[in-house]
Amino acid sequence: MTKPAAARWHSILAVATTLFATALTAQSTLTVGPGGYPEIGDAVAVAQPGDLILVQSGAYLPFHLPIGVRILAPNGATVTTPPGGPGIPWVHNINPPTGQQATIVGLSFVTNPAYPPAEPPLTVQVTGNVVFADCEFRNWSDYQSTAVICNGDVQFDRCRWNSVWDCMSVLGGRVIANVCQFQAYRVGWAGSDPGCIVASNGEIALHFCNLHGSDSIGSPNFLGSPAIRLSGATRLSLADCTVAGGISQTWASTAIVNNATQPVRHARSNIAGGYGTLSWYPPLAGPGPAFQGAAQTATLIGGGGSTRPTIGSTYLGSVLGPTNGLVAMVLSFERTAATNVPFAAQPVHFDPAAAIGFSYGSINNYSPWPGYGFYTWQTATLSASMSGMQFWLHPLVWDGATFQVGPTFGGIVY
Q: Cα 224 to chain center, whole Å?
């Protein structure tokens, strides 16, 4: 690292004498479930920005979230509509105002399985600065509805999608997914070829994710679908991901259809079309193309992996970057909205004036990827006093000219 660059970043690259050097302001805790509020929406109605809503195991009604609070279900909880449809599709509006952040951990947003009659789906519509961790989005409804719609600064950590319609639609903003699973399913009554991500605008960054387009097995009339469809000005980057098109008896599907104006950036990822029998003579059995549409490129630097922050354990992770490169790990106690700062290749999610330089050093030579190495890190043991609080670790890889910004690790401690 050159001396001018180090001087510009001295406030965040000094090693912290202790992990938790920043005081955290305690907020109110509201409990949902036995002995507390009967529904999540009831707690949201009286909560103040920054409060913690602690949700006990059980099934709860859908809710809107117009303020920046933390919703934590340590043992998991389900959000679903009551049986007794038909009804109109329910939209969860998760829309904290500018300057606030909402964090949702451990909730499963599930279409009610009662049938007949058909139950309305649950769509989670997100704007503003929102983080989801350890959540599930499951939509098996007869009604056509995308499981999640994003048009804000949204991050998903260790989340899962299972849907007979599109798993996620991105209309704008910036969406980050770390260690997530996307699975679309093709069924005859749904009348569509669902994919994992459909985007018409915005920026999407996927790290250590698995995406599989819908398979169509058992009927020659249905096609497998691409895992990702892009259009407009969408920008997509993938690191250490697996992306596969769906399987079909007829047409071999593509993994990524890119009709956007920007190329897809990808590194260390397995991208493959689904298998099928092409409808030409003579028939040809084989996989579809990995990409279709605009030219692709492979220039992304970054990567990493993590466990969830749990009381009584250390928080572990690693950053993957060019061998002999330099990496800095920055600590913050809130995830800010994406901010453009000098000398960073992508927006960062911390305040450079308040963040702490947790650690920095060289990337070693051990790696399954030629030319890349690991930089590993470990926190102090997370104490019970941090329950319900959050911290974030941000890897920055110096490439000699700019900081390449890796995925943001962390979240609520539980």
A: 24
288 and 340 together in one domain = no
Q: Cα dist. 32→29, 37, 46, 180, 284 in Å?
A: 10, 5, 12, 27, 57
Residue 41 sits at φ, ψ, to 5 deg, of: -60, -30
Whether the CB-CB separation of 318 and 376 falls below 8 Å is answered with: yes
Kindly state whether residues 159 and 258 are assigned to the same domain. yes
Q: Is the torsion defined by CA of 249, 163, 269, 152 positive or negative?
A: positive
**Structural domain range at position 324:** 305-412
Q: Tell me 191's DSSP state.
A: -
pLDDT of 217 reads 65
Residues facing residue 174 across a β-bridge: 153, 203
Name the band, by pLDDT with cuts 50, 70 and 90, for residue 141: confident
DSSP tag of 377: E
Does residue 393 share a domain with residue 269?
no
Strands (E), 333-384: 356-362, 372-378
In tens, the pLDDT along 286-338 reads: 788 898 887 777 655 665 666 788 999 988 888 888 887 889 999 999 899 99
Asked if residue 316 belongs to a domain, the reply is: yes
**φ, ψ for residue 131, nearest 5 deg:** -125, 130
Residue 172: is its pLDDT beyond 90? yes
The structural domain count of the chain equals 2
* Final residue before a domain boundary, out of 283, 300, 317: 300
**Angle (nearest 5°) at CA 363 between 359 and 368:** 130
Q: What span, in angstroms and rounded, lies between the C-alpha atoms of 52 and 219? A: 49
